[in-house]
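My current task is to audit a protein record that another person submitted. I have pasted the whole thing underneath without changing anything:
***
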Amino acid sequence: MKTRHVTLSPRTSLSLRLFAGLIEEGRLRKGWTRDELAERVGVGVVTIRQVAKGSPRVAIGTYFEAATLVGVSLFSDDLDTLRREHDTQRERLTLLPKRASRQHDEPIDDDF
């Protein structure tokens, strides 16, 4: 299987490395080895090593699960607040069109 190269903007790359560092810090504060965190997350230790490096190839759910387990706050630590925020966001989404369409013929500038 061919490996796909992911190109990130500098801001995204730095943010991912920051998130990875917070997860690594949380793991160390808990006194867990990477093997222990991998077992708790349900992935292999190689994946946890990739998380620690901030690899964009690791599924975001894996990052979120590792972060939650080591105590990195994602949105809200309170489950009721998180549910309310989720419901509010879903309501806002229902007010938007179901599809996005280009309103004009300007080229998209995505050159970082």
Q: What stands out?
A: The two ends are 28 Å apart (CA to CA).
